[in-house]
Amino acid sequence: MRKATITRKTAETKIEVTLNLDGTGQYDNRTGVGFFDHMLDQLSRHSLIDLTIRADGDLHIDDHHTVEDTGIAIGQALVQALGDKIGIRRYGSFHLAMDDALLRAALDLSGRPYLIWNVDFPSPKIGTFDCELVREFFQALSTHGGITLHVDRLHGINSHHIAEASFKAVARALREAVEADPRMSDALPSTKGAL
Ligand SMILES: [Mn+2]
């Protein structure tokens, strides 16, 4: 079973992530940051990766450590659940439209972290949530998940829609990349012999 649980504890946050790559998009995410929970729910729902997250972070400072460290823990859980990556599609991409927002995500589960983040927000905040933390989350996910990740905002005038469409676009791309490719059977999708 492609499942993993990661527990990560620092002086700033205590985070537990459980995920199942072969799930149905069931989620139970509680980080103490409402908008971020809403985004994590989208990530699960649209990737079909079951996701349970409990985060207890230093929110009296701000949301930064909690959001970043949750990204780290999800990335680590992905690596553990993917294991040897035998038989997966490896690549995924998606154009996601949400009202005014059009986001494109393209990713490679290459083991090589690389983030291209071409997403500007028209406002600095969504409610009390700092928009710049969306990039921090995906930077942490890319780095610790070993993911080459490109995200581009092609259109968008509403920050909530732009953020949400970015999570949904990455979710759909991730769904494709982690899936088993029936033509790949038990082969590794690389000519290098390792991913
Ligand atoms: Mn929403």
Low-confidence stretches: none
Alpha-carbon distance between the two ends: 20 Å
Tally the helices: what do you get?
A: 4
Task: Give the CATH level 1 class.
Answer: Alpha Beta
Mean pLDDT: 97
- C-alpha Rg, in Å? 16 Å
The figure for the number of domains is 1
Pfam family, one: IGPD
EC number: 4.2.1.19
Pathway: Amino-acid biosynthesis; L-histidine biosynthesis; L-histidine from 5-phospho-alpha-D-ribose 1-diphosphate: step 6/9
Subcellular location: Cytoplasm
Describe this structure in words.
The protein is an alpha+beta fold and 195 residues long. 42% of the residues are buried. A hairpin with a 2-residue loop joins β8 and β9. Strands 1-2-4-3 form a four-stranded mixed beta sheet, covered by helices on one side. It has a four-stranded mixed beta sheet with strand order 5-6-10-7. It is globular, with a radius of gyration of 16 Å. It is 34% helix and 31% strand. The protein is built from four helices and ten strands. It has one domain: Imidazole glycerol phosphate dehydratase, domain 1 (Ribosomal Protein S5, domain 2). α1 runs parallel beside α4. The mean pLDDT is 97. It binds manganese (II) ion (MN). The site of manganese (II) ion has 3 residues, from α4. Manganese (II) ion (MN) binds next to α4. Belongs to the imidazoleglycerol-phosphate dehydratase family.
